[in-house]
Design a protein that fits this description.
The structure holds three protein chains of three kinds. By secondary structure, chain A is an alpha/beta fold. Helix content of chain A is about 20%, strand content about 20%. In chain A, strands 2-1-7-6-5-4-3 form a seven-stranded mixed beta sheet. Chain B has four domains: about 5-110, Sulfite Reductase Hemoprotein, domain 2; about 135-290, 2-Layer Sandwich (Sulfite Reductase Hemoprotein, domain 1), CATH 3.30.413.10; about 305-400, Alpha-Beta Complex (Sulfite Reductase Hemoprotein, domain 2), CATH 3.90.480.20; about 415-555, Sulfite Reductase Hemoprotein, domain 1 (2-Layer Sandwich), CATH 3.30.413. A five-stranded antiparallel beta sheet of chain C has the order 3-2-1-4-5. In chain C, strand 4 and strand 5 form a beta hairpin. The model of chain C has no long low-confidence stretch (mean pLDDT about 95). Classes of the chains: A alpha/beta, B alpha+beta, C alpha+beta. The interface between A and B is large, with 36 and 44 residues.
Chain lengths: ~150, ~550, ~100
Amino acid sequence: MSVIVRDSGFEKDTWETDGGLFIDLEKYGQDVTEREPNKTAIDIPNDVTVESLKGLFNSAAMIRIPFPSFADGRGFSLAKQLRQQGYEGKLRAVGHIISDQYGFARVCGFDEVEIDFDMAGRQPEEQWLARVPKQDLSYQNLLMGKRPLRNI
Amino acid sequence: MYNYNQFDHDFVRNRVNEFRGQVVRRLDGSLTEDEFKPLRLMNGLYLQLHAYMLRVAIPYGTLNSRQMNQLAMISEKFDKGYGHFTTRQNIQYNWPVLKDTPDILDALADVEMHAIQTSGNCVRNVTADHFAGAAADEIEDPRPTAELLRQWSMDHPEFQFLPRKFKIAMTGGPNDRAVTKAHDIGIRMVRNEKGEPGYEMLIGGGLGRTPMIGKVVREFLPKADLLPYVEAILQVYNLNGRRDNKYKARIKILVHETGIDTLREWIEEVFETQKSHHQAPPVEMIEAIEAQFQPPKLDNAKVDEDKLSKVISSDPLLRSFVETNISEHFDSNHAIVTISLKPIGGTPGDATAEQMRIMAGLAEAYGYDELRVSHEQNIILPHVRRDDLPEVYKVLKEAGLATANVGLLSDMIACPGMDYCALATARSIPVAQELSNAFEDLKLQQDIGPLKIKISGCINACGHHHVGHIGILGLDKAGVESYQITLGGDGTETASIGERAGPGFSYEEIVPAVSRIIDRYMSIRESKNDTFLDVYRRVGADTFKEALYPEEAASA
Amino acid sequence: MARVVYPKVVTANHLLGGDVIYMTASGDWSRQHEDAKLYEDIDEAEVALKLAKGQAHMLAGPYLADAQLGENGKPEPVHFREAFRTRGPSNYPNHGKQAEA
């Protein structure tokens, strides 16, 4: 079992207990019509191209991207590309992510982060809540998109 | 000179508070050392051989007297009364303790400075020509763009955990004083055939274990496309750069293994997506940044040339200083003064708190309050009235800062090496000191002429040895310091990687070996204007190898 | 030529101050190399290193460094890097441990 971190704090992972499935991309196969999209999550490796996933966007309610180490930042770019290419389902980061990265994950397009109990014990909820992004305040938003909430 | 707006202030202060929290969380066990390390590195804090080291960003090397005075204050209050200026135009403090570092960062924030992203696998402090905004040969000041990139890279959510560090350098004209061709991204301000301003973009340059000269990925990039294009380069690198081997993780290896043409296609494809998802920076923001880099209102009273030249010629030391340490300013009444931080026998790049204050004072009194740090580890006063030069010289001389050696043999780059650095394999500072002492006669150095000696204490090449006319690389050879010489490197617009001369020399042998190279050069040059690099490029390495290894030459 | 296998000391940097420290026979830490416990047995050294790794709250980057018994009967470094760590930077003799000598 693991802990799901959202902007509201720690939650239990109810995906599988609610009947959801995680399916590895390599076992995903061609035929996706028999699965219920809202019960399907795809586990993708972090060296896949987003281009190759485009046909699957509507077949799954969740895509889960692994972080083998918190120092491996490919997942951030993958999430961003998935969002830019039009994926609108849930994006979950799973693996070695630290609370200090939670804001980055959210801004890149992740909805939630899945961590193990060890990490949840070592970095308790308040350390993650402290990293909930104040969406409108970043240099990137100022320079390339959204305006800040207040005047500069 | 860029002044922080409220957002900058809030951002930097918030970051200090975050780091203060991370230090507490490291101490209470929330963060392991492995997890804390990249976080402290992102805030400039290294753990070195003898102590922590804090690397403070000086974006594109520009600072004012207030900031320089604060750097002096920090060195006295939290360190040992000096600082070390680096090849990334930064300053390093060698002796801070962990618990003080959040306070140091607060003191920096007080003067609109920070240490963010001076280390770690992220976009590092953007460097630029140290004569930017003052040079006579400049097309356009690169610093507004460098500032734009600084802001864009700050805490970029996607690019904090890249395969490896990422360095960007900019130059504003045809003469490259920022080693742009040895950077992950090198940017040069250019004009297209319609006369519109834009950028020439290079990628994949770098030194280190596999030195490479950057390749042109875009000949002309319109100014408005800069951020989406850089974003595209970084995204392609983040997803495709190697993570299996630290020595193959820089973008230069990706360029090398994938090929520049394929990589260009990938980047262009991502660029199109980035462009469609991002707006160009708001014009008023760009204009607000550009407005802050306008040259100061220069005093345009005509310099009395007769009087000035009489004063200069009456003092041979002043004359030699003016000949060596002064560069041409775009305004004929003004000059660019390079203050050498390479006193004979000194540590390249070090300045005491007192010296920092004196340089700050000079900037205030004679330099329109502007200072620069050069990647060659010197300090620049970019705008000085030429009739103030004698007075400026006098003050510098009293402070031990008037060494007339800029561009000469003793104006060496040296990384901290094994006297400080945990990664080093040999010392580099004492080699620089001994070489400097061996050639202490400045007249001799002037006779030898323009010569760039660059020394690194390990293969990572922080001392830029590959692009030194004479490069020295310190290695650990079976438990003994060993120094390898490279010849013919060049870090300018005519960049080239130096060629390895042969087997290494021991610590005792390295200074005599360099002396033999110099002797050989002096004996074969055709005139005083025939520089070391000219001769090397004309006659090749053989004659120098023969001078370096006389016994082998004799037995051959 | 066979590679000489040297005895080991456990060394690290102090977490708060950054200073070089060495593990002593009692398991405490000293700033002086000569106070270090010299391990002839690599297995014992590994056990001590593991102990050090468990003290992450007060130190960083523990490792085993080659050392040998000096003429004064106390451990001394073998490699020049470790020798520099016992002293300080060569360009400022008044900085680092050497300043206290």
